[in-house]
Design a protein that fits this description.
Distance between the termini of chain B: 25 Å
Structural class of chain B: alpha+beta
Oligomer: heterodimer
Number of strands of chain B: 4
Number of helices of chain B: 2
Distance between the termini of chain A: 64 Å
Largest sheet of chain A: none
Helix content of chain A: 55-70%
Number of helices of chain A: 2
Strand content of chain A: under 5%
Shape of chain B: elongated
Structural class of chain A: mainly alpha
Radius of gyration of chain A: 19 Å
Helix content of chain B: 40-55%
Shape of chain A: elongated
Largest sheet of chain B: 2 strands, antiparallel
Number of domains of chain B: 1
Strand order of the largest sheet of chain B: 1-2
Strand content of chain B: 15-25%
Chain lengths: 96, 133
């Protein structure tokens, strides 16, 4: 079996995060808000799918399940980030 | 190539296998159907899958079409049947139940494989969240 060298370069995950324009002026709060908004959007979508599924309108079970799994992972990521943030804040408070 | 690319690709696989399952159900249900709107016995359907480029080098799967298999079906002698021809033979659908069963197992295993891919994708994401705990 011959394996060709992929003709694309991996960019996404390896670019430093600070290059990304996030929020209005790269404010940390805006970034966090954006993240929370996207999680919220995903959660709404999966909730809608669950509603459709229980009322018999959903096109497929697996799409609803996958949407829920995505929401689950995103929610956990958000909670982890928030916890870290609060941890850092507490650390700052203890400085005085 | 974000966090959920693999999940979206697996979702397309699940969709394709579900379509295959639907078509197989239709074939099995109509294994003895001798009347169709187009006239003649039921003809078995096959799902033709096609690659769809997803992102960079990745591709998901798409249902290209549901093709009608036109090989002639078995002719059985049944003169009492209203669909029998002049010599008393009835043309049955070209559905082979054993073949359909094998296809069904195939589709259901492939579906299972795709669900496992989704699950392990999620496990990987959760493992990544445990870094630094």
């Amino acid at each position: 079996m011959r394996i060709d060298k992929p003709d694309f370069t991996l960019t996404g995950p390896f670019t430093p995060a600070k290059d990304k324009p996030s929020g209005k002026d790269g404010n940390f709060m805006d970034t966090l808000k954006e993240a929370i908004d996207s999680v919220n959007h995903q959660a709404k979508e999966s909730e809608q799918m669950a509603m459709d599924l229980s009322s018999g309108r959903a096109p497929s079970i697996h799409e609803a399940m996958i949407a829920m799994q995505k929401t689950d992972v995103m929610m956990r990521l958000m909670v982890t980030m928030t916890n870290k943030l609060i941890e850092g804040f507490n650390e700052l408070k203890r400085l005085s | 190539m974000d966090l959920f690319t693999a999940m979206d690709i697996s979702a397309s696989g699940l969709r394709a296998q579900r379509t295959r399952m639907n078509v197989i159900s239709s074939n099995i249900a109509n294994a003895r159907t001798t009347r169709t709107p187009g006239g003649g016995p039921y003809q078995r359907r096959d799902v033709i899958l096609r690659e769809r480029s997803f992102e960079e080098a990745l591709s998901s799967v798409d249902v290209q079409e549901i093709a009608v298999n036109t090989t002639p079906g078995e002719r059985i002698y049944d003169p009492g049947n209203p669909d029998a021809d002049g010599q008393g033979y009835v043309t049955m659908p070209n559905v082979n139940l054993m073949e359909e069963m094998v296809n069904m197992m195939n589709a259901s295993r492939a579906f299972e494989a795709n669900t496992l891919a989704v699950k392990s994708q999620k496990d990987m994401a959760l493992k990544a969240l445990q870094i630094g705990r």
